Amino acid sequence: MAFVSLNNLVVEYDDFRALDGLTLEVEDGAIGLLGPNGAGKSTLLKTLLGFLRPRSGTASVMGYRLPEQALEVRRRMGYMPEREVSSPRVSAVSFLAYCGRMFGMTRADALERAHEVLNYVGLGEARYRPMQEYSTGMLQRVKLAQALIHDPKLLFLDEPTNGLDPDGRLEMLALIRDIVDRRHVTVLLSSHLLPDVQQVCRYVIMLNRGRVIRHGPLETLIRPLDHHYEVGARPGEESALETALSRAGWLFHRQVGNGRFQVTLPENADCADLFRLARDAGIQIRHCVPLKTTLESVFIDSLDEHSPEAAHARV
Amino acid sequence: MPVYEQTYRSFEGGPALRWRWRFVAAQELRVLAVSRVFKFLVFLGGLHYLFRVMQIVAFDIVAQDPNNPLAPLLQRADIFYISGQTFYDFISYQLTLMFVTLLYAGSGMICNDVRNNLPEVYFSKPLRWYDYLTGKLLALFVVGFFLTAGMALLLLLQHALMSPSWEVAIDCLRWSIGALGYSAAAVLPSALFILLCSCLVNGQNYAAITVIMTIIANTALAAMFAETLRYQNWYVFSVPVAVGHVGEKLFQLARPQIALTIPWTYSLLYVAGFSLVCLVFLVIRVRKMEVAS
Questions:
Q1: Nearest CA distance, A178 vs chain B (angstrom)
Q2: For a Cys-Cys bond, which of A116, A178, A280, B190 suits B8, CB 3.0-4.6 Å?
Q3: What would the DSSP string read from start to end of B54-87?
Q4: C-alpha span between B268 and B192 (Å, rounded)
Q5: What is the ipTM of this complex?
Q6: What value does the mean pLDDT take over residues A285-295?
Q7: Surface-to-core class of residue B58, CB atoms within 10 Å of its CB (0-12 exposed, 13-18 middle, 19+ buried)
């Protein structure tokens, strides 16, 4: 069963069409929702929570129709919003216990679970302090904890690494990875930070102007590029390698700093030809790996393909 | 990031609860209970209550004791006499304090939530807009009724216990209904209007200022009509005057202070209509917080 199923979904804000005929099936695992600002990512999540009513089309989450059965959906999923959330005068424990009570937990159970989840997200003794004293990183952890308090099977994360320092970001991504791998929670991660999605997700959905412009498993989107390699020579032989590659017309790009080169071989050449060229020039190749597409390049290509200018050019 | 094997328990889902608003109300009261300003305001209310407790003791025990040397003095002093006016005055004085307390407690209830992006979190859980609104209103009602009707009922109980007779019991029962009705007529529109202002403006201070300015404008406008048209009944358009009119009638005061010649039910209908309008706008606004389109 698909966790999320959308069929020709249209959502509008007054005259602006935020989601334009979205048709999608989301299976379990970690799914990345990518798109530039205004692509419709947050609108999609809010529609799946029942906050926004579709103009037309159908949407269902875990088999429950939206917006009619929104309450059933909310009982089973967790949501970490994009914007900073704080209940300034209460502690994180009290806030989480309150959230737990909304799911029908007893007061004692809600308190116990609040502590468990706060331990899990790594919020230490600060949990007893009023939330107005928390740093952005702490608030981000509380935001994740409130989404996990009822052990959801489906988790919507809207820009979970917003405002975090590099260490905090890595820790947050590791937590999300752990939630997916160990707790077997299906995560729909909305972000415009491509490395975050690449690090956590196995399936990617790219949105632009309210439409899906590309989707698929990460390994099919990021694939090795034919005849593209990254090569490096023995220290001191970099300039000789550059000269040899330039002379052969294979040099594509010189990477600054590490003495490595990106090369594009002709259709009829392969890796062996590269080593042959180096041997003839008296150079020893110490590094040679095939190049892969990056999520960034796939994303930019997709945006370009679906831009109005490209559509106009095709016409 | 956990440095050891840390996880959390599974949860198979709790019972389908109907009255989730009670968690909202309890949380609001819990937040209020730790506030020093709130404690101080309740303490002020408590001081007035203690003064009235002493008044009842003086009238019911000391003044009735022929062996007590203070008895003749207390019997002559009007200030210690217990009647419907005593409880009406008690609630009337408490109303000012109740209003200030509700203003402090309620003016930030919704706008602070919105500023801290809490509705998005609350409504992503099985909480509906009506649970949220009912919980907030209930918290304000509890505070408002505690400071007015709650304390008045305790005083009435004390009076009934200290001078046990059928006449006093019947009077106390009648005044209890008056205390409940008068408090309801004051607390309901106050709580609804304060919460509405909290819903309409961006900050707690702005909400409080809006409430105070509206009350002043409302009373000034009613006075202007009454004086310009030389017809005193125009004063009923001031909500505080209408509430006072209802209170006077419920306590059946011998010497009413509000000089209105229209039936008290008009005042009651005006207060009820005002409350209903506030509730309708409140429902529209809070519903929009959950269902944006």
A1: 10
A2: A116
A3: HHHHIIIIITT-TT-TTHHHHHH-GGG--SHHHH
A4: 16
A5: 0.85
A6: 83
A7: buried
With residues binned 3-state (H G I as helix, E B as strand, rest as coil), the percentages for chain B, rounded to 5, are 75, 0, 25
Q: What is the pLDDT of residues A195-241, one digit of tens each?
A: 888 888 989 998 888 888 888 888 888 777 778 888 888 888 888 88
Enumerate the residues of chain A whose CB falls inside 8 A of the CB of residue B15: 104
- Residue pair B146/B88 in contact by the 8 Å Cβ criterion: no
Residues of B in contact with A113 (CB under 8 A): 8-9, 11
Residue in B8, B35, B120 nearest the CB of A120? B8
Tell me the three state secondary structure of residue A236: coil
Task: Give, rounded to a whole angstrom, the gap between the first and last alpha carbons of chain A.
Answer: 39
Search chain B and give the residue with CA nearest A90: B31
Interstrand relation of A64-66 and A77-80 (parallel, antiparallel or unpaired): unpaired
Q: What is the DSSP string of A69-87?
A: THHHHHHHEEEE-SS----
* Amino acid (1-letter code) at residue B165: S
- C-alpha distances (whole Å) from B149 to each of A111, B106, B154, B214 are 34, 19, 9, 25
Sheet containing A211-217: order of strands: A77-80, A154-158, A186-191, A30-34, A203-208, A211-217
**Pairing between β-strand A4-13 and β-strand A211-217 as defined by DSSP bridges:** unpaired
Q: Say what the pTM is.
A: 0.85
